[in-house]
Amino acid sequence: MSGDWLITGAGGMLGQDLLAALAAHGTPATGLGRDALDITGTGPVHRALSAHRPAVVVNCAAWTAVDEAETEEARALAVNGGGPQVLADACRETGAVLLQISTDYVFAGDAGRPYPEDAAVGPRSAYGRSKLAGERAVLDTLPDRGYVIRTAWLYGAGGPNFVRTMIRLEGAKDTLDVVDDQRGQPTWTADLADLLVRLGTGALAGTAPAGVYHGTSAGATTWCGLTREIFRLLGTDPDRVRPTTSESFVRPAPRPAYSVLGHEGWAAAGIRPIRDWRQALNAAFPALRAAERT
């Protein structure tokens, strides 16, 4: 087995930043996008791992259409549950470590304090159920080499996301009504990518125990609070952002009202969790602004 990494879903925001982070660390990596590798295909996945012989596989591929999953649950489950099972089976055969990206949607979203890594799960959406199936596939198949990293509220320069949308809308609207009753942790994909590199490195060194970790920024805010911070960074009046409730934006899939995740698990791995969301947004902002205005 080589010391290389293999990234599935490499064309997405996180996949792009993860490949960049690995390059910065001098770690050889191969990125395979959706067109290059269907993670639900047993044959293609086993051939890919046999060809590349990676030491670490990071699964960034996923069905991410949360609302569409409500009517297409079988298809979402095939990607988010079946795909990780295929990858885990292949990693078991080759001896690779598997990092599986998961989500806050595995929780009910009704807590009053940050969810610890071992909190009881209770997804309320088809998307959440499909991602939970992927978690269980990895942890059950690879008890010693399977890692689940739950994240939430991702943004980055490499694809469409809430932060980039708000940057664009600031120049198009006088005021914006934004939900203020959902609380979570905006997380920059570059920060998460760096965390994944450190976790995979720790897994190979035997210093990071297998299991569940939470990969979100420190602190918490609402979508309204996040948008006001975006407006502040744009040099405009944050009061142009007006708070509203989830009832004003009814969606097919229920959104968690509380998506704040705890980070205690990183101590056992000797890894520092992600910084505060405001610090990260400030650092990310030049690239986000440039990406939205090109």
What does this structure look like?
By secondary structure, the chain is α/β, with parallel strands linked by helices. The protein has helices spanning 13-24, 42-52, 73-94, 126-141, 162-170, 189-205, 223-233, 266-269, 277-292, and strands at residues 5-8, 29-32, 56-59, 97-103, 146-151, 154-155, 176-179, 183-184, 187-188, 211-214, 221-222, 241-244. The chain has one domain (5-160, 186-219, 259-274): Rossmann fold, CATH 3.40.50. It has nine helices and twelve strands. A six-stranded parallel beta sheet has the order 2-1-3-4-5-10, sandwiched between helices. A two-stranded parallel sheet has the order 6-9. The chain has a two-stranded parallel ribbon with strand order 7-12. Helix 2 (42-52) packs parallel to helix 3 (73-94). The longest helix has 22 residues, at 73-94. It is globular and about 55 Å long. The mean pLDDT is 97.
